[in-house]
Amino acid sequence: MEEIRCTTDTAYHCLTHFEKIDDMTRAELIAAGYTDVQIDGQLKKPGSKFRAFFALSPQQVVEKLKKECPDVMKNLPEPDAKGRVRPSFVLKQEIGTDGVVETSTLTPEELSTMRTESRNGCLIRKVRTSRTVYTNECQMVLAKDGDGWSVITMYPGIQAPPLPKDGESDPFWDCHCFIEF
User: Fold this and answer.
1) What phi and psi, each to the nearest 5 degrees, are found at residue 154?
2) Where are the domains of the chain?
3) pLDDT in tens, the chain (181 residues)
C-alpha cells in the first residue's frame, strides 16, 4: 500500500472535521506557526466531526482506515485530471457526526435560525439545531504525490462537493447546509 501523507497545513485545514485533537498534533501545529486561538477556531467551525473516540488527528484517521478498510485503500481508483482520487469508506461502527443536512428536511423553527457566513473564502449556510446525525461513513480526497498520496481533505459523512466560491452556485450546496451543534 502506498504511503499517505498529511502536511501540517492540510492537518490544520482538516481540524474543522474534528471534535478535538491530541496534544502531539496541537504541538506540531504550534511549531509550524499556528496559534492556540487559530487551532481552537478551526475546531469550533460548523461541519461534520470525527468523534474523539475514533480519532484525534488526521493521521489517526488514515491509520484506522488502512486497518479497517484495507480493500478500499489498496484499490484506489485512477486519479482524475487533477491527479486526485475520492475514496469513500463505510465502517462497521459510528465514527462521527454528519454536519450537513438537506434543507428540505428542516423544521420551520430550524429554518428560522439559518445564517450565512464566510468560511475559507466561501459563503456557507448553517442552521442551529439540537438534532445530531451520526455516521459510519468517511470521505477523503487524495492527490498523487510522487510514490504516494497527499491528503487534501477528509471528513465523516456523506460525500459532498467542494464548497462553491463566493458568487458561485452548486446544486448540492443549494439544497444542503451545515448544522451548528
Assistant:
1) -155, 150
2) 4-180
3) 688 999 999 999 999 999 999 999 999 999 999 999 999 999 998 889 999 999 999 999 999 999 999 998 888 888 999 999 999 999 999 999 998 999 999 999 999 999 998 887 888 899 998 888 899 999 999 999 888 899 999 999 998 888 888 778 899 999 999 988 6
User: SS3 for the chain, per residue?
Assistant: CCCEECCHHHHHHHHHHECCCCHHHHHHHHHCCCCHHHHHHHHHCCCCEECCCCCCCHHHHHHHHHHHCHHHHHCCCCCCCCCEECCEEECCCCCEECCEEEHHHCCHHHHCCCEEEEECCEEEEEEECCCCCEECEEEEEEEEECCEEEEEEEEECCCCCCCCCCCCCCHHHHCEEEEEC
- Kindly calculate the radius of gyration of the chain based on its CA atoms and give it in whole angstroms: 16
Residues 6+ apart with CB under 8 A from 85: 76, 77, 78, 79, 141, 142, 144, 149
Distance of CA 170 to the CA centre of its chain: 18
The pTM score is 0.85
Cell 450565512 found at: 116
Q: Nine-digit cell at 54?
A: 475514533
